[in-house]
Amino acid sequence: MKHPIYLDYNATTPIDPEVAKEMIPYIETFYGNPSSSYSIGRSNKEAVEKARIQVAQLINCQPEEIFFTSCATESNNLAIKGIAWANSTKGRHIITSEIEHPAVTEVCKYLASQGFEITYLPVDQYGRIDPIDVKNAIRKDTVLITIMHANNEVGTIQPIQEIGAIARQNEIAFHTDASQSVGKIETDVDKLVVDLLTIAGHKLYAPKGIGALYIRKGTPIENLIHGAGQEKGIRPGTENVIHTVGLGKACEVALRDFKQNQHNMQVSRDRLLNGLVSRLGNQVHVNGNLENCLPNTLSVAFENISAHALASFISNDVLISTGSACHSGETTISSVLQAMNIDFRTAAATVRISTGKHTTEEEIDFAVEVLVNAIKKLT
Ligand SMILES: Cc1ncc(COP(=O)(O)O)c(C=O)c1O
User: Fold this and answer.
1) How far is the CA of 353 from the centre of ligand 1 (A)?
2) What is the distance in A from the centroid of ligand 1 to the CA of 200?
3) The CATH number of the domain where 106 resides is what?
4) CA quadruple 60, 22, 204, 212: dihedral positive or negative?
5) Residues with a known catalytic role
6) pTM, two decimal places
């Protein structure tokens, strides 16, 4: 058992050994520029195109609808600003939610400073958006709806399919930030009825520094950066072949092992919760609704505990994150927990624990022991 036990897979994942192995030839040997016409260039171009197919297969789209980027933040920027600018003569209204990652909200704030109007939809106590609210928020000048697929802090899964149907009926482009859901739950772009979908490499066992954006064929979009013709001119710049190969392999592995990974993440998450509840009883409070949640995510508050004190107390043994930020002794609770109307005390006592595809029973049992002992000491 590796030490400390890592239970923060929503923050990032390690590179899968199969992914690393696939990348090594492109680190050590194949250095050609994919745009060069001679053989070492061509073979790298082929590697990028193979990765495009692997990514497309995971989300059930055409390879030519996949655009490689540097990260999920870039994909979200391209999707949101790209659609906003491409449609700015048609309208300047965007619908989003109160629980998006800053990689969406900050883009919306920027667009607001450029004359766009943004509607932030509320969520219920479980962090879920009501599709009726989306329908009611639509205006004549709405050009984009951007709602995340699954939340990074509490794991809540949004009714993307229903929202997608509403967007489609009203002929409005629909983007979803699927950074947390790809590889954990099904992300078929047709079933989800989305026009744009963000993928984050490092959340699915590919390296950091690579992402992708799915753009449905025929969706008008303006590029953010200008240069040569790579990625059909939508995201120019010499391709990051090494990491692209890694993302492709990670998607292939995620598709191949999907059921098994999903099962393992959920079994370990549930074992953890059961272990905590059996030892701590009603001192344990779960945020969100596990019936409608990512299989690996547990947002949990421990009564009368400071989440920061707990996370730092156990950090030599178990790595988890908190639902609040602590600066100069002041605690600010996350906007997601605030939007869910979770009271300050509960939010300040909330930790996020997220399991991985290879998390073992042994690791979970050890983590329960460490958490329970720490909570008893800190209460
Ligand atoms: C839902 C969501 N969107 C976007 C991001 C941003 O990812 P990156 O920092 O890799 O760009 C994250 C990262 O935590 C996330 O959880």
Assistant:
1) 17
2) 7
3) 3.40.640.10
4) negative
5) 326
6) 0.98
